[in-house]
């Protein structure tokens, strides 16, 4: 899985600036990454195992 920087590098320069600004705003609003996927996967697995 690539990083945000890898994704930005793959974009056209005009698009890159816009998307990079959106990521910057998101990092300001949510400075600590939240790993919401693992609890959701665990909950889904628990439902399947029932």
UniProtKB/TrEMBL annotation:
Highest taxon listed in the record's lineage: Bacteria
Protein name: Anti-sigma factor
Organism this protein belongs to: Leifsonia kafniensis
């Amino acid at each position: 899985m690539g990083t945000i920087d890898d994704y930005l590098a793959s974009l056209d320069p005009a698009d890159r600036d816009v998307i990079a600004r959106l990521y910057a705003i998101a990092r300001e609003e949510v400075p600590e990454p939240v790993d919401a996927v693992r609890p959701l996967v665990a909950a889904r697995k628990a439902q399947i195992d029932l």
